[in-house]
Amino acid sequence: MAFESYISLAIYFAVMLGIGLFAYKQSTSDISGYILGGRQVSPHVTALSAGASDMSGWMLMGLPGAMFLTGFDAMYIAIGLVAGALANYFLVAPKLRVYTEVADDSLTIPEFFAKRFGQSNASVRMVSAGIIVMFFTLYTSAGLVAGGKLFESAFGMGYQTGLIITLAVVVSYTLLGGFLAVSMTDFVQGCIMFVALVLVPIVAFTEFDSLAQMNSAALESVPSLSESWQELTLLGLVSSLAWGLGYFGQPHIIVRFMAIRSVKAIATARNIGMSWMLVTIIGALGTGFVGIAYANQFGLQVADAETIFIIFSEILFHPLISGFLMAAILAAIMSTISSQLLVSASSLTEDIYRVVNKKEASQEQTVAIGRYGVAGVALAALLLAWDSSNSILSLVSNAWAGFGAAFGPLVLFCLYKKNLTHKAALAGILSGAVTVLFWIYAPVLEGGATLSSVVYEIVPGFIISSLTIWGVIIFSEEPHEEVQAKFTETNKVLAELS
């Protein structure tokens, strides 16, 4: 890659680290500031932070790669994601913002699960924290795989070297600035991703004489939209659309709703966030589709479909712009990794260390422990990502399903079911997580295949978790009056604001 591209990347790295230093001085003296930015994050930062931390490297690499390989089948995943994100803004964001404050100012999702039942150290807190650390370690490794592939493909570096560089930068600003640094860098990264996902497919399209020529070239190797629909099975459609169910249980996304400065600001965040998402997801699909046509028309050799965005960045643009586009991929990767590391560290600090350790730690000590947690999860993810044969989309889909099934139903029940009990919550988390793990890893089908080859694991996981919660509620005693009073207070606050 040309020297100008390295200049673009150097500027990007400097900006990210500069934001980390700024945030370090602004909001990391106490644990609330380090974990939630003092609940004073603006709707603009909330929207792009939620979007950037959600989409990660799979938006610029995984989704274009899926479109490149399967054609229009990848579009149904995008539809499910858009529907799920919109539902999340309406169903979860307002109530969660109020309820987490009403429930004794809960700073993390596991803490909210516990205080929702009036028990700061309830077992549901430790269990959910353990699941967060487990699945986020897997999720973070997916981002590192994307970073390793980027440096290997674009810069000719070793895959493992790329992993280490990616991790070093993102850990630096996350350690320094906590939630504020993560949110502010996510905002900048979201803007970069937006520009890149508009620019690349449009410039690639201009290489063709017409839309008809591009479509004709692409359809040489993938089915048309009508053919794709006819060949699509019901289970295949359900599996793709079911990605949207995952939004209700993603801690690194819904924690943004807890940190926004007010409930009224959520509507602004929703409008900005959904507009950003629609444009970027169409751009990602467009990159993959134009990539199919370009490869067929001009004989482009693509060894790894997940690098099509990188290839376009190198062959279609001036080196200075190529560097900016490489920064866009790093932005997508780092925005998600930083969010996941911070949520994992928050759970290790607030939900495991504070519960296990009987001695009261100072704010400074707690923040320091949170930083150790960031480093620990990062190293574990690095080991998981060391194998370059890992698929980005596969790793993301497994972790996404794990959170969606373990936490998604419970979050909804917490917010909408007044008589939800602690036993039901614990049973729901465990049943959802176990179902997903069984679906992914148990070789119960012919030839050692797993059930995930039949239907996406989030579908049975979400259903079983929901039914388990409902069933346990029926046979449980009513929660005590104080718990129900907080539920009523939350609805009263929301009614007054509407």
Automatic annotation (TrEMBL):
Q: Please give the Pfam families that the UniProt record associates with this protein.
A: SSF
Q: Which family does it belong to?
A: Belongs to the sodium:solute symporter (SSF) (TC 2.A.21) family.
Location of this chain's protein in the cell = Cell inner membrane; Cell membrane
State the source organism's domain of life: Bacteria
> What is the recorded name of this protein?
Sodium/proline symporter
InterPro entries noted in UniProt:
Na/Glc_symporter_sf, Na/Pro_symporter, Na/solute_symporter, Na/solute_symporter_CS, Sodium:Solute_Symporter
What this protein is reported to do is described as: Catalyzes the sodium-dependent uptake of extracellular L-proline.
The protein's UniProt keywords, in alphabetical order, are: Amino-acid transport, Cell inner membrane, Cell membrane, Ion transport, Membrane, Sodium, Sodium transport, Symport, Transmembrane, Transmembrane helix, Transport
Which is an annotated GO molecular function term of this record? Answer: sodium ion binding
Lineage summary:
Bacteria, Pseudomonadati, Pseudomonadota, Gammaproteobacteria, Alteromonadales
Annotated organism of origin: Alteromonas alba
Bilayer-spanning residue ranges: 6-24, 74-92, 126-147, 159-180, 187-206, 232-255, 276-295, 307-333, 368-386, 392-412, 424-442, 454-476
Q: Which GO terms are recorded in the biological process aspect for this UniProt protein?
A: proline transport
> What is catalyzed by this enzyme?
L-proline(in) + Na(+)(in) = L-proline(out) + Na(+)(out)
| CDD domains given in the database record | SLC5sbd_PutP (cd11475)
GO CC, sorted alphabetically, is: plasma membrane
